[in-house]
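Input record, target 12 of the design panel.
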């Protein structure tokens, strides 16, 4: 499985607060510059890299002179607002040294759960990658509530990996990887080199909370690997202190812990879509469209005879025959009102009928699962 990392084209790299802020003592600009150097090298080798970075709250705590992570929501939000400024400035400086532009993207988990924002986020990040820009993603701690209390950027990294159908998620931490027990407490703990992301036994091995600076811990990294595996992404957990860790992992060196996804990306994505999304409406299709869907084709407006329900762009809808048989379900590119206006029409008339064209398909096959 490690050899697959060598051919991986799209990587999501997540770095934790303890690494970014030297355990809360301030932004580690030397480490950030080194990650930028490695990511620049990966870009030069033809790989696309998205960076998910913690550190805003920790950086804000340092700027404000706080030595303990506060519990009050408003103080956490204030720390995030202060710290995000320095975090972005430091990354921009680090990447500009290699001729790379960066883009700040602040999201909440809700943004990726809402299908309209999900599609917009994917389109924007994909465009940035095509332009050669390095997206730097963080949770929007300044405005969220539950996300600060319960969220973590390990989970966000996995969601981003699913969003972009990345080949691998790399989680850099202050530990060498996943151990059979907490190595800080058990001298007999051994490093797990490789395993299946879906293996629930790893959760027991990873039990325990994060540090006073970070929010998660090894358990959130194991669960992130489980999430990432749904879209077929392998997860590497490794020490951010390891020299050239990103370059060496991408070269398939046996560093840290590799938790493998056992399903292919397409199969995992179909499973995720079938099991976790609720239907907001239905598109009734004709016989020709039904045959195309059964053969794995996209759904075009011309094949839709009726639209059932009210939904927005990005909602999950069913594709049904006139007899009510569900053939597929997927993320729709247009709202229900727009679908009604372009139903039975050729795709080249979408702009004429709506005044704009988003996609030529109502549902692209990549966003569809057969049922």
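The sequence produced for target 12 reads:
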């Amino acid at each position: 499985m490690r050899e697959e990392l060598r051919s991986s084209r799209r990587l999501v790299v997540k770095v934790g607060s303890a690494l970014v802020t030297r355990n809360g003592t301030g932004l580690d600009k030397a480490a950030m510059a080194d990650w930028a150097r490695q990511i620049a090298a990966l870009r030069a080798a033809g790989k696309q890299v998205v960076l998910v970075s913690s550190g805003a709250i920790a950086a804000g705590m340092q700027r404000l002179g706080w030595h303990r992570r506060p519990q009050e929501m408003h103080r956490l939000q204030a720390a995030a607002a202060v710290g995000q400024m320095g975090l972005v400035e430091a990354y921009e400086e680090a990447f500009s040294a290699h001729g790379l532009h960066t883009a700040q993207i602040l999201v909440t988990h809700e943004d990726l759960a809402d299908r309209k924002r999900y599609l917009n986020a994917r389109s924007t990040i994909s465009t940035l990658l095509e332009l050669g820009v390095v997206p730097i993603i963080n949770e929007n701690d300044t405005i969220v509530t539950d996300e600060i209390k319960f969220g973590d950027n390990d989970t966000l990294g996995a969601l981003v990996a699913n969003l972009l159908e990345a080949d691998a998620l790399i989680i850099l931490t202050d530990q060498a990887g996943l151990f059979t027990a907490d190595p800080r407490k058990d001298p007999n703990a051994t490093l797990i080199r490789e395993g299946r992301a879906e293996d629930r036994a790893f959760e027991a091995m990873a039990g325990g909370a994060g540090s006073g600076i970070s929010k998660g811990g090894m358990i959130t990294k194991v669960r992130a690997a489980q999430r990432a595996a749904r879209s077929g992404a392998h997860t590497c957990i490794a020490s951010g202190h390891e020299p050239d860790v990103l370059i060496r992992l991408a070269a398939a060196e046996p560093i840290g812990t590799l938790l493998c996804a056992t399903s292919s990306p397409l199969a995992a994505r179909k499973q995720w879509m079938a099991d976790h999304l609720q239907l907001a409406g239905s598109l009734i299709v004709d016989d020709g469209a039904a045959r195309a869907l059964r053969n794995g084709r996209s759904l075009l407006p011309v094949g839709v005879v009726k639209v059932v329900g009210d939904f927005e762009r990005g909602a999950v809808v069913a594709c049904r025959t006139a007899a009510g048989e569900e053939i597929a379900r997927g993320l729709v590119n247009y709202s229900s009102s727009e679908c009604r206006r372009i139903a039975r029409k050729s795709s080249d008339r979408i702009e004429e009928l709506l005044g704009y064209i988003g996609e030529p398909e109502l549902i692209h096959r990549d966003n569809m699962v057969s049922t």
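DSSP finds 16 helices and 13 strands in the chain.
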